[in-house]
Amino acid sequence: MVYRFFYYMANLAIRVYYRRIYINGLENIDKKQAYIMACNHPAGFMEPIIMACTFPRDLYFLVRGDLFEKPVLKNLLYATHQLPIFRFRDGFSSLRQNQDTINQSINALGEKKALMIFAEGSTEYGFGIRPLKKGLARIAFQTLDQYPDLDLKILPIGISFNNVDKVGGDVILNVGKPFDVREFYTSDPQLQPTKLIPLINKTTELMNELVIQESDNLTKDTIRATWKGLSIENQEGFFPRVEKNSNFFDQLQSALKKSESPQQFDHKKYISGKFFPWYLALIPLAMPAYLAMSLPRYIALKLRNTLVKKIEFKSAITFASGTFIALFLIIGINIGSILSIGWAATLALDLSLLFSAYCYLFVWENFKKKALVKTPEALGQLDGKLPN
């Protein structure tokens, strides 16, 4: 019940927070198959939120164990299918608890559930796949030790963010083809260690095909600028917020192969997509939502700027704090409204604020797009036509 509540709330929130989420390969997810889903981890806690909201089945996650130290947060994490994995820095006493988590993970897989593992073992923003830890392979082998008849598969996943720390960024999420753990598994405990590396290598190889790759000749700025330029050339509109079975990833890969020098976009300030010049007409309709959301937005940005040092966690804190503060504010407004003007008027107020919120988001995005379109450096770098 708790998982489902957050599912619906976060589903709406990610469509507000991100300009566009491109998703490919959802057809590779069987709703009744036991999976270990292996994904890279460039953006704090945004990856599990995005995948939980867009994948066609409930997910279980292995997350940092130190998050479970506070009882209230611990109960919430367990209720949303998150299981703690402790690291050496958490102390040896905490490390001993990992076997309990592994047992819970094995039991979940034995029930043909989907277990998400961020196989790099830590979060770090970048384009590409960092070396994977062996824990993924160990859990896979231990699961087959306990459930020898289980059809267990590894499902490789790759996720790329163009601006990991900014509101209005883009995300590419690719789901690859699963492969059978039994290609590498042996029941002989003495031989199992020799089989771990080949399984990890295959997982790494498949994941590498699903992400944008950074290199010495292809820097983050070049990737971001090419990504932004392609979004503008494609004349992408306000909808859809989540685009399934898009060829954007292939287009971007092709464009990056042709990139000889970085395009001149200030990726920190502007967002991309099609610009609608009549957006100013919606400002009066957007004002109620702007005023209502000013407090959550201010607090969320303040928390991000004062509490978060690592770029990987800025979006997670902004998203989570802004969403929860907005939720509590909406609940408070509704309680006060019901007590003062009744149910019918409150429903009308909610629908009006929802429409105003749509107008506000539309106005905000187009204001950012207008600034980009009028940047001379940006205009000079695009081969295609920009919106007038």
Features:
388 residues, alpha/beta, 13 helices, 9 strands
Question: Could you explain how this protein is built, in words?
Answer:
The structure is a single chain. The chain is of the alpha/beta class and 388 residues long. It has a domain at 2-208: Glycerol-3-phosphate (1)-acyltransferase (3-Layer(aba) Sandwich). Helices cover 50% and strands 12% of the residues. The protein contains 13 helices and nine strands. It has helices at 2-17, 46-54, 71-79, 92-95, 98-110, 135-146, 192-208, 220-233, 248-258, 283-307, 314-341, 343-373, 376-381, and strands at residues 20-24, 34-39, 59-64, 82-85, 114-118, 152-161, 170-175, 179-180, 242-244. Strands 1, 2, 3, 4, 5, 6, 7, 8 and 9 form a nine-stranded mixed beta sheet that branches. Helix 1 (2-17) packs across helix 2 (46-54), helix 6 (135-146) packs across helix 7 (192-208) and helix 10 (283-307) crosses helix 12. The longest helix has 31 residues, at 343-373. The termini are far apart. Residues 376-388 have low confidence and may be disordered.
Spell out the blueprint of helices and strands.
Elements lengths: L1 H16 L2 E5 L9 E6 L6 H9 L4 E6 L6 H9 L2 E4 L6 H4 L2 H13 L3 E5 L16 H12 L5 E10 L8 E6 L3 E2 L11 H17 L11 H14 L8 E3 L3 H11 L24 H25 L6 H28 L1 H31 L2 H6 L7
Parallel strand pairs: 1-7, 1-9, 2-5, 2-6, 3-4, 3-5
Antiparallel strand pairs: 6-7, 6-8
Secondary-structure element sequence? Answer: HEEHEHEHHEHEEEHHEHHHHH
CATH superfamily membership of the domain at 2-208, which one? Glycerol-3-phosphate (1)-acyltransferase
CATH top level label of the domain at 2-208: Alpha Beta
Going by CATH, the architecture of the domain at 2-208 would be 3-Layer(aba) Sandwich
Q: How confident overall, as mean pLDDT?
A: 88
Write down the CATH topology of the domain at 2-208: Glycerol-3-phosphate (1)-acyltransferase
Question: Which structural class do you get from the secondary structure elements?
Answer: alpha/beta
What proportion of the residues form beta strands (DSSP E)? 5-15%
Count of DSSP strands: 9
Distance between the termini: 48 Å
Helical amount among residues, as a percent range? 40-55%
